[in-house]
């Protein structure tokens, strides 16, 4: 398994899907481990009844069907798939509505879904997902991207109420790819995935949705900044190390006739 | 791992998968990928089979450079200088290196035969271009290696026929301890067209970088361009060709930097903003505000 996870950190991020299927066929015994530890770009299905789309993941899947957060029904229909309790379903509905507005504010488009289910420790787990297509043909407002995809997966484990506070453990993964393509500069593709965790003990009185939402917003922001400054920055640094810009060269060789 | 299950895939499929992982390794990382692939396969024979096919392809695609055992310099592994899958010509020193692709080392070296080298007419041009180019590469790339190969018309004795030279520039930086690797690969095809007395230049540049400290982010950038100049004496040609290459590569680096500077305000913003338009954090607390916001977003048509 370690070797498999090691490979996933080296394979070009745009080939994640192919790499994962390859690993699944080489290691059939480890399929549940692989599927839960390796994040894949998110797929989407249409809930025609509600006129909305929803995101597919391991957390709303049973066999080959997926549960829509809007209608709470499985697509394709299932006889006896798992459902959240009615209390949790109320929270899930509110979360989907609120998260959709959050998604609009930060992503100016995009699709969001929230899934919740009870766990064995008297708490519950919630999964907040966002899929944004930022390409010119998708929801890219400014039209710069030939291809642009952002997939965010936030899984929060919420512990039971202990004297008014709950323990929240958030694991966030962002996968993204952006490609610009034009005559003068050829094709430029940056893609990657990073994952971080954050745990907090917060007052239940503030509301689970408020607590989870704040954590997600904070961690998502950190991941975005980290991607932009550290990760993309390091690749840029590498390019300038391979071939330093002319200004630097001229500083070193002031009498260089060629430059 | 060698269980006989119904849904176990065939040996051929395993080899294909292993090859795929090896070929898609980022610059400088194939040995690490090889280790992981070997562990997952758990079958040395299958691994060896995949490695013997994948490593030569990877090495040629990445234009890797290997040191001559006699310390006379480096040889670039490319399809242009390939004599056979294990032997590669270094035109500068007129030597042929025998290599072990999987270990990525040069095992032995021998002088090139006359048949393997271009005619003295072509060699005059090739050598002049290589000299001028080496000066440029030495200045522009802290760790760059270059070679000039003749890929067609190498037996041309005199003016009156066409021949083609290929310039290869390869620069790599491996810092696994800093979780960062990268490579710059340029290939310039230079066609000397006698009837038009013109030299057609076609360039392909590929830049890659991989940063993987607690994550996996990769840059993959490619560029193609064309240019031309007139046929002159060897030394003058060398100077004008090198100027063309220098000009286009410098311009390309500038456009790469521009792509990076555009990220914060344009391209990246199309994926996710830093903050909402309101410039404040999202108001998770206020459910009434949500109902309001939802109605407003619907009215203003911002909603989906």
TrEMBL record, chain B:
Cellular component aspect of the GO annotation: cortical cytoskeleton; F-actin capping protein complex
Coiled-coil regions listed: none
Pfam families, alphabetized: F-actin_cap_A
Keyword Nucleus: no
One annotated GO molecular function: actin filament binding
Signal peptide span: none
The keyword Repressor appears for this protein: no
Gene3D superfamilies given in the database record: F-actin capping protein, alpha subunit, F-actin capping protein, beta subunit
Keyword tags: Actin capping, Actin-binding
Single biological process term from Gene Ontology: barbed-end actin filament capping
Protein's job: F-actin-capping proteins bind in a Ca(2+)-independent manner to the fast growing ends of actin filaments (barbed end) thereby blocking the exchange of subunits at these ends. Unlike other capping proteins (such as gelsolin and severin), these proteins do not sever actin filaments.
Family, similarity comment: Belongs to the F-actin-capping protein alpha subunit family.
Subunit architecture: Heterodimer of an alpha and a beta subunit.
Record-given protein name: F-actin-capping protein subunit alpha
Organism expressing this protein natively: Apium graveolens
